[in-house]
Amino acid sequence: RNPKSIMNFEKKKSSHLIAILQALFVTFLWSTSWVLIKIGLNANLPSLTFAGLRYTLAFLCLLPLVFFNQSHLQSIKNLTKQNWLELFLLGVLFYAITQGAQFLSLSFLPATTLTLLLNLTTITVAFYSIFSKHEKTSTIQWGGILLSIIGILFYFLPLSSTQSNQTLGLIAGIVGLLANAVSSIYGRHINSKSNINPLVVTCISMGFGGLLLLATGISTQGFGNLNTNQWMIVAWLALVNTAFAFTLWNKTLQTLTAVESSIINGTMLPQIAILAWLFLNETLSEKEIFGISLVLIGTLIVQLWRYIPTNKNKTPSK
């Protein structure tokens, strides 16, 4: 019964709860992005260029925070060739491929269809955790995952028949799903290294991915004609929903497991549905509301299971 060990345990538990709340706040910001992105795409903004502008501007917003901080500069100087390669690959996976595929898919598919595809990330990450044995998935976590999946299916099924002109959107959505799952696992691997600051990880990887995405968009789709409102959307997405949100998300990855992060990311499903109802005039049926409720309950089960045993046994073991 070491008082110091008890304090460390309580501090660790509190840090984990804070990380959960921070991650949930990030998913809210990202959920609002879907509404803003749809508004921009409906105004005929080129999808890849739109995405490239968002992440390139966000990268430029983060640069001063890195270069005017001595500890961050020292962190960059200490990066090895292996670190640079890992950050480049993360940028390609998490920004250029994942985000580019999502923007492209949203220009062809309804937001609900793409959201359904991306929520399969949870299953992909969970299966990876089982077969790799990197992170143990408990029975209760599996129950929460299953309940979330049932909620997703209950909310979206039956899907309407897919038109032929939506094939590209489905392909892009599947690519985004796979890249999102891989980058979720790979991002945790990088952020779990104590020698790399989360802000440095975000800035460098976003720089690589954003510039690559912007170059690809301009060369294939052109720059487009942005008016004042569209530039305001890009600026908000870049500064708040990207530069700030991704930095905070990378910070939470230092505490949360890949499955936990993926489950929290899954709460974007009900959040997007509610925001679409409020701002895009998309109504919700009773069946859809029930599906959202199942997803929320499943998410809470996964997050709260670790606290239940401590409530039953508050006395530390000898």
Which tags fit this structure?
single chain; mainly alpha; 79% helix; disordered C terminus
Order of helices and strands: HHHHHHHHHHHHHH
Give the tally of β-strands.
Answer: 0
Indicate the structural class.
Answer: mainly alpha
Which quaternary structure do these chains form?
Answer: single chain
Helix count, per DSSP?
14
Residues in helix, %? over 70%
What is the terminal separation in angstroms? 6 Å
What characteristic shape results from the CA principal axes?
A: globular
Major sheet, described briefly? none
Question: Averaging pLDDT over every residue, what do you get?
Answer: 82
Strand content: under 5%
Q: Regions with pLDDT < 50 over 5+ consecutive residues?
A: 306-318
Rg calc:
20 Å
Write up what this structure looks like:
Mean pLDDT is 82; it is low at 306-318. This protein has helices at 3-42, 47-67, 70-77, 81-106, 111-118, 121-132, 139-156, 167-191, 198-221, 228-252, 258-266, 268-279, 286-304, 308-312. 79% of the residues lie in helices and 0% in strands. The protein has 318 residues and is mostly helical. The radius of gyration is 20 Å and the shape is globular.
